[in-house]
Here is the input.
Amino acid sequence: MMNLFTSALVIARRDYRATVMSRLFYVFMLFPLVLLIFGGIFGYVMASSKAEAPAYLAIIAEPDRAAQFEQSYAALHSKLSGENFEGVKIIAPLSNAAGQALAVLADTRQQVNAVLVDTGATPRLVGPSASVDRLRPGVLLALGNAGKEATPEMPLALTRTDPAGSGVASDRAGLGYGAAVFLFWLNMLLANMMLSNLVEEKSNKIMEVLIAALRVDAIFLGKLIAMVGTALTIVTAYVGLGTIGYLLFAPPELALPVPAIGWPLFIVLGYAYFIMNYMVVGGIFIGIGAQASSPREVQTISMPVTMAQMLVLLFASTAIKTHEGWQWWLGALFPPSSPLVMYNQAAISAKLWPHLLTLGWLMLCAALVIRFAAARFRKYVLKSGPAREKRRGLLRAQWTKRATTSR
Amino acid sequence: MTLAIDARGLVKRFEGKTAVNGVDLAVPEGMIYGVLGPNGAGKTTSLRMILGIIDPDEGTRTVLGNPRPLEVAHAIGYLPEERGLYQSMAVREMIAFMGALRGLPLDQGRRRADKLLTEYDLGDVGRKQIRTLSKGMAQTVQLLGTLVHDPKLIVLDEPFSGLDAINQGRLETLIRARRDAGATILFSTHVIAHAERLCSEISIIAGGKVRYAGSVDAARDRLPSRVVLRTRAKEGAWRADLPPDTTPVDGNWHFALPSTGIESVLQALITHGAGIENLTVERPGLHDAFIAIAGADAEAAMNMASAGDMA
Here is the structure.
């Protein structure tokens, strides 16, 4: 007897080839490309409209000092043309210059990226980290030209006005959440295909040939492996394309933060979690889809299934945001949301072992899901009277009736 | 004698309705064995239980010595009643895939597919898609896929339905050839003639039960031979010497061969000058035996089913 995996691979190989070699697959592959093109155009428009908005570096100082600074800053600007320099906005100091600076930053109408407060002995640059870090060299140079010695001891004091919890940690949290949502959407787009996966076999009656030769769980596993393979083909193509596009064309503002676990492992884990997410969710879907006997029934079932997926996203988001306590643990352990929550974890924590544990847990869950789906299929589809009657058509039903009455 | 299939007391209920009600089936190795019965009699369900597609509610089955039939799937070939192939697959790929399902490596499967197709005069369709084939051709392809891994046990569910007379003949030849090569063949049919021509042993199933199991000869021997008599004289004293079950049919007299033999009747006919035009003693066909065993209702159902096939 062939073992489970050998059997599954027989099914997987055929399914993968049948899907990837079909003409429709190219349409399928091209469709996300169209989305990407639209997304790119949209993103470009958004980015350029943002770039056109004027932004300023405000200076709070006595008028002549401020004018001096503006001049040297403008001179610097012309020397280093092409760099992204803000225009200088001069603001007369009030008694509390520090408070004034924060007020200016908070006032969105002023469109000020950072404020240079130059009223005391040490000038101070106030603003969000990103702006402060970017503007600091230029401001130092301009200050030097404006007559101040840019000594290393007290060159320029900095006040970072980042909202609480921001910085690398917040960037990583953003990356983690984005990664989780990305994983979810990939899965959502591709796992729904599992719902209708068995309809072909059932409607063209080849199911009987398969189930006479192989265990049902081997068939399910094979179909899952084939779909994971297909999905990975698509994902690798697009992630590869996306990465190349990102490396070539992305503006530096879009720079992604380095995930806590490092990029190589983060990508490997991304694949691992995608596969396991697909196996678990796809396993559930193939089990549900196997109960349906026609494409129409699959359509009917797909709406509630999509809603259930949205609930899983909501559940995972809650877990990610609370980040601790029972909600997090539940999200991390519940098989459909676990890959999302744990992938997010990879962005914010460098520990590897929780991922290995999670992947082991997910493998166990996937095996159980497939077993359970196969058992349900055997019990309710292969053995149930009405389902068989329907499948065998009117004629057979008539004969069964006839045989019953004649008995 | 080793049994290829040994099923005992198989029971299967679907939603409370009993489809198979205690079927025993003992198929010796190397034999062509027929399961005969009307549609809905429980033949397919019995075969599916024997093959391990579904488990029986009660009873046991041992197939090629194994109580779990899927574990010996590599040695079994099964042609389901409802044929089905992947429409977009090439013919030789389909056959190779069916072999792979039973553990035959794909490349070997492709080579054997080419060989089988050539033997069956279908050498030119190997690279065509299944969807381009006629129904009969597709059915042949599925049959070849069922046999590509050289199974020791071949189970064919209604293999003759949907085939024209020529292909039915070819299938009979193929079945005999496989038997001669050492395989055991179990097939179901509702067409008595096929069972009669091919099988050494049969089971007659009706209403979920085995009504008869044994050789075709023994089934026929269960009924007395029939006598058909035609006389010149229509009336006479000889009438009294005919058995009481005599019925006139189209100017002939039909009656069962008396247990004492035909001689006494013959003597009376000669003595009274009935003028014998024709007298034949016919051994009953499986058809008659079937009616006697399965009952007239089952026969009516069979006729209906046959009519359905011809339509």
